[in-house]
Amino acid sequence: MPLAAKAAPEPGQPIYTVRGLTKVYGSGPAAVHALAGVDLDVAEGEIIVLLGPSGSGKSTLLNIIGGLDRCTDGTARFQGAELTDMSDAALTRYRRDHVGFVFQFYNLMPSLTARENVELVTEIAPDPMPAGDALAMVGLDARMDHFPAQMSGGEQQRVAIARAIAKQPRVLFCDEPTGALDSKTGKAVLSVLRDVNEQTGATVLIVTHAAATAAMADRVIHFKDGRIERIDRNATRRDPAEIDW
Amino acid sequence: MAPLDRKLMRDLWRIRSQAAAIGAVIAVGVLLLVMMTGLVATLDETRRAYYERYRLADIFAPVTRAPDHLLPTVAALPGVAGVEGRVQGAALVDLPGVALPVQAVALSLPADGAPRLNAVRLTAGRMIAPSHPDEILLLDGFAAAHGLGPGDMLQVTMNGARKRLRIVGLAQSPEFLFSTAPGELVPDDARFGAIWMGRPALAAAYDMDGAFSELLIGTGRTASEPAIIAAVDRLLAPFGGQGAYGRADHASDRFVTEEINGLRQSSRGVPPIFLAVAAFLLYIVIARIVQSEREQIGLLKAFGYTSREISGHYMKLVLVIATAGAVLGGALGILSGRALSGVYLIYYKFPFLVFQISPGALFIGILVSVAAASAGAMFVLRQVYGLTAAAAMRPPAPEDFSRSARIGRLTGWMDQPTRMVWRRITRQPWRIAGAVLGVAAGMALSAAMTSIMSGFDRTIDLSFDVMDRSDMAVSFKAPLSDKTVLELQRIPGVLAVEPARIVPAILSNGTRTYRGAVSGLVATPDMNRPLDAAMRPIHIRGDGLVLSAGLADLLDIRPGDRLTVDVREGRQPVLELPVAGIAETLLGAPAYLRIDALNRALGEGGRVSTAYLQIDEAAAAAVHAALKAMPGVAGVSVKAEARDAMQEMMDSGAGATRYIMLLIAAIITFGIVYNTASIAYAERSRDLASLRVIGFSRAEVGFVLLGELGVIALLAVPLGAAAGYLMSFGIAAGYSNDLYQIPAVFTPANYGAAGLAVLLATLASGLIVNRRLAAADLVASLKTRE
Ligand SMILES: Nc1ncnc2c1ncn2[C@@H]1O[C@H](COP(=O)(O)OP(=O)(O)O)[C@@H](O)[C@H]1O
Ligand SMILES: [Mg+2]
User: What CATH number has the domain bearing residue A56?
Assistant: First the structure.
């Protein structure tokens, strides 16, 4: 399954085309429709914020288009390639070459230092930046040789972001990246995500509970009961540092 | 270094104490296998080299008196590589302070240098000088048993004449690795001697000038032994040939062979069971370790690592542990095999050691370890690969507790720590089951080994207290008339006498043959009592043989089948007899027939070769003196001494390894228990630290851990006892050999002791592991997984 070669971002070109995406957990009367038919186009270079109550399907959507999970029905194309038809090996390839993840609980390898956690990804990526540069982008160049246990939550999350951006992915998926952080640290983390978007042109999707975050996005997608309730477009993106929480 | 490899090294360091415990368990499993097979190979090879260097004959042919001019004829037979004719005669040695004369064999050494076959090895003093007819060499072991040495004089009766002979040297010979007096079951250095003398002097003593009474033959590699034996028997028949026999039927070699076979048997039967238990544990533990990495596996998947790369990473982790353990065990096995060979060297009286290692065992040990570890890892990895990356990163789905409302009520009385123990056990039954199975396997091994200890005691007790109720057995130089029984009865202090006639015989059933003896007993023996499986006395019949169970097995024969008995004494009749019954004999491989029927078959009415005596202990000295004065008595076997000799043999021959194996069983059991404790700790360290943080005392937190371990141990003990009982049959068979049988016995005390040991080991391991919690930095352990 050849994927389009990494090209300079062309804003406006859809990178994802999602149609009728459905995810059902369980069966019979106990079935849960985590996604109940989602249609969405994501443009290259966009920052998208997903808002919605807990359990509304945001993580499920991210996991499926991020290649971590499989859908029950519908289609999701990445640059014309159908993700829902891909073999496990092809999905692995897709994650390895194009996608970066940032999770709510950082998910660092406890036995590796900050730099080594980043190297874990640069090791296998086709065109990575040096691990040191990625850590410098998140302002952690001084703490590269510290283990996760020696860092605060905000620092650990910045390492996780460095790890996600070091491969120079086309897309960054961030599932509640600030959920475990205080507002000040949270703003710093969001600033880093914005910087990455501006400097590398990566498309960024951020799931969050904090409605104020919406101001930094190009578009804001509101989720409810496994469906997109509405999509707002911001006239201008605001600097996360200026957002009031 | 790649970051994954760095992770590997740090993970290994993190689980180092667990890895060491796992490695140690597999190491002792491999150690035992490598040690035992190496030991057997070493003994085999050493014996071969010793025989070769001292030119032990391949065929022995005793004869009454054959002229020397036959020797070239024998040498010309096809396949014969060397011939030696020597003088051989029975002798009695009178030792100061020993009540009865001791039996010995006198052998000639050529006047013109070393013998062509059956050379001797001088261990002290010098060789005999041809010009001094009274000089002798004495068997080293016999001399040591009686404190004799070069320069001492020896009082010997040869062919009826008493002589004073001068010991000038002590010697060893491959034909006397073990020396067993006629009529004895077990070799005893003190009770049988060998004397070497110059050929002229010995020929004079036994009237053998220009003649020989034993023919020794060395054969070529491709020679047919049966053909040579047949030819030699034909040649010697006119001169009183008593039947040539191969080396395998020579008393000493046969005993060594049975001993080494006993070791081989236990090396094949027992270590594989140990290794299997160790491998099983390895499988369980590795599976649990990889299971605890599930979230990290999911994360690696999320980054785009392929299944192959992730498998490679974890395979490296488990293979480092498994191969390090196996290689260490192999190395230690080679070293301890060497040390143990040194011990057996002395026991077998080998003058040197040809050390062997067995690459096959090493290979199998490493292979089994690696296979078990890989299987454990793959078992979990495949499960994880079945999940999407998103699912793998989530902790395992919470189980459905909708049914447990009832249990909520049930546990209402519990305090929080108790409830934690309860929940953990009920919510993760598979993890607990794995731990229970592991500990049960360890318990089984220790329980089986301790019951084997009792099996050895049982063999001795049954044989010497229940089956044999005599105090001593008197054997005669030649069969005597049954009036002897009355004569013995008249000795003051003798309470009862039971006659027996024991004749050498070759028993055969088709192609299976056994060179043993037929024991003629009275119809309802009271002293030497064959018993059936239910320990009831067996009635001895005149029209059929009662075989020991081991012999029946060996000959593959059942009651009702017919057996050929080729008697090798008197007029040497060949009898066809049905098997009438099976006796549960634990020592040797006897076959019983009624004494009158045996005598009738031999055409010698009313003859006795052995008599069993019950005596009044207070009059023992007088009885001994009376027996010494009886001319026909060849030897007296005091039961207490025979019992000691048997115990000694079980403790120094193949049976001696049972102590080592018990130790190793204990090590494996403790290793398993400790592993279980440390895994339980690793899986819970975060929860336990949280408990500490919210204010639980160390004792209360310790209770959570120990409670869980306690439940595991309590479940494992009965399961392990049952498995141990089954296992004990396999191990008992491994320890049984031609010389003795070890029964699998169920002794509640042994199982109780093993169970108690498991519980104590659990408590000790729990306390050791719990100390780690005390030392742990609470904040750090909350941040990251231990
Ligand atoms: N592994 C799962 N098994 C069953 N139901 C699940 C599973 N994961 C998520 N769900 C359900 O799917 C729905 C959407 O979940 P999720 O996408 O995680 O929501 P969000 O991220 O918006 O909070 C929820 O109702 C949740 O209970
Ligand atoms: Mg979510």
Answer: 3.40.50.300
Q: Decide if A83 is inside a domain.
A: no
pLDDT, one tens digit per residue, over B301-341 is 888 888 888 888 988 888 898 899 999 999 999 999 888 88
Residue-range definition of the domain harbouring residue A185: 45-70+95-242
Residue A178: per-residue pLDDT: 84
Q: Is the CB of residue B381 less than 8 Å from the CB of residue B309?
A: no
Task: Give me the residue from B300, B301, B780 closest to A149, CB to CB.
Answer: B780
* Short-list B564, B520, B568, CA closest to B546: B520
The rounded distance, in Å, linking the Cα atoms of A98 and A2 is 12
Residues from chain A that touch B305, judged by Cβ atoms under 8 A, are 92, 96, 124
Of all residues in chain A, the one with the smallest CA distance to B309 is A124
CA angle B258, B261, B262 (to 5 degrees): 85
Q: What is the pLDDT of residues B157-214, one digit of tens each?
A: 898 888 999 999 999 999 998 877 766 667 778 888 999 999 999 999 999 999 999 9
Give chain A's domain count. Answer: 1
> In the listed set B373, B397, B421, which residue is the last one of a domain according to the structure?
B397
Of the candidates B195, B4, B203, the residue with the CA atom closest to the CA atom of residue B86? B203
Count Cβ neighbours within 10 Å for each residue of B529-552 and write b for 16 or more, e otherwise: bbbeeeeeebebbbebbbbbbbbb
- ipTM score above 0.90: no
Domain that holds residue B367: 1-60+250-397
Quick one: which of A93, A43, A62 has its CA closest to A177?
A62
Ligand 2 mean position, distance from CA A54 (Å): 7
The torsion defined by the Cα of B203, B208, B212 and B214, in degrees rounded to 10, comes to: -80
B41 and B122 together in one domain: no
> Are B6 and A112 inside 8 Å of each other by CB?
yes
Bridge-based pairing of strands B562-567 and B494-509 is antiparallel
Cα–Cα distance between B35 and B270 in angstroms, integer? 12
The string of pLDDT tens digits covering residues B248-282 is 888 889 888 888 887 887 788 778 888 887 888 77
Give the span between the Cα atoms of B753 and B454, in whole angstroms.
13
Q: Which of A69, A110, A116 sits opposite B388 (nearest CB)?
A: A69
Lowest mean pLDDT among B264-268, B309-313, B453-457, B714-718: B264-268
Residue B414's pLDDT band (boundaries 50, 70, 90)? low
Q: Give the residues surrounding ligand 1 with Cβ less than 6 Å away.
A: A 25, 32, 34, 52, 54-60
Angle between helices B639-652 and B429-461 (to 10 degrees): 150
* Percent of chain B residues topping a pLDDT of 70: 94
List phi, psi (to 5°) of A40. -160, 140
pLDDT the model gives residue B185: 67
pTM: 0.75
CA distance B220 to B225: 10
B622-656 per-position pLDDT tens digit? 888 888 778 788 778 888 888 888 888 888 777 78
CA distance linking residue B245 with residue B228, whole number of Å: 10
CA distance B468 to B165: 39
Residue pointed to by tokens 């990895």: B381
